[in-house]
Amino acid sequence: MAKGPGGGRAQEGRAMKPTFKLEGIYTPLITPFHADGGIDFDGLADLVEHLVAGGVHGLISGGSTGENYAETVEERLELARFIAERSAGRLPVIVGTGAMRTPDSIALAEGARAMGADAILLATPPYSVPTEAENAANALEIDRAAGLPVILYNYPGRMGVSMGRAFLDIVGASENVVGIKESSGDVNRIHTLACDYPNIQMSCGMDDQALEFFAWGARSWICAGSNFLPEEHVALYEACAVRGDFATGRRIMTAMMPLMGVLEQGGKFIQCVKHGVETAGLRAGPMRPPLQGLNADEKAELEAVIATLKTAVAAIVEGE
């Protein structure tokens, strides 16, 4: 597939290191559902067009924001193929391979390769709590199945263990491993990655630390909020990573912090993101069980925060 501003992959059949530059805002797409739980592909098509128009730099299929844990492998591959076909080479497409069972992750990795995806997102299997060596062996098996650039996904809060130094020392030796989405929330991990693993591109995966990531050299932000606020997230990236204007970046981040608080509180992250998509005039639909939607007060709070944020960021951007 053709490459957007953020990605590029080595040509098939050439014995060279795959390349993929993590540059910009990458959106882990929600999965719109109908009331009966079926996938709303028309709603998903509209979301892809919304994100392309909003200026994001890449699309991620099959992340936790897309409710991957409530979908079959076949559904996840169907969603990934649809997103890749709909984007039609306008943006890089990354396919999430996270799953509890290694054979499922391998099937997703092989599917990503077959559909011509630009990269895969590779997480620790949840619940099993592997050792560093076990986790590394698992990651390398998925890496071999994909044969694509690999973006690691460190999220110990969901997975139970961290991708520590022993893991990174083993897996980082693979030429395919080009980046890491860091979602630990530990600012010391930013320092470790920036100073000790400069060969692995660091991407912000903890929304309220985006400014810190950019200050330490990250060039990308994988952020669910960009599903419904793409221009505002792009504005922060451009201020900090493109222009190095951290004074403006701090003003934008200050305006965005109330949203971070709403998204992260009460364990209703996906519900908030899906309602945010609805406020943008798009269809998101319900969550699949066990999650349930926001109540009226929660919706009103989120809508007020979004409206204030949009006004504040627009004023900052217009005043530059």
UniProtKB/TrEMBL annotation:
Keywords: Lyase, Schiff base. The active site is at residues 153, 181. Pyruvate binds at residues 65, 222. This is 4-hydroxy-tetrahydrodipicolinate synthase. Gene3D superfamilies: Aldolase class I. Pfam families: DHDPS. GO terms for cellular component: cytosol. Belongs to the DapA family. One of its GO terms (molecular function) is 4-hydroxy-tetrahydrodipicolinate synthase activity. SUPFAM superfamilies: Aldolase (SSF51569).
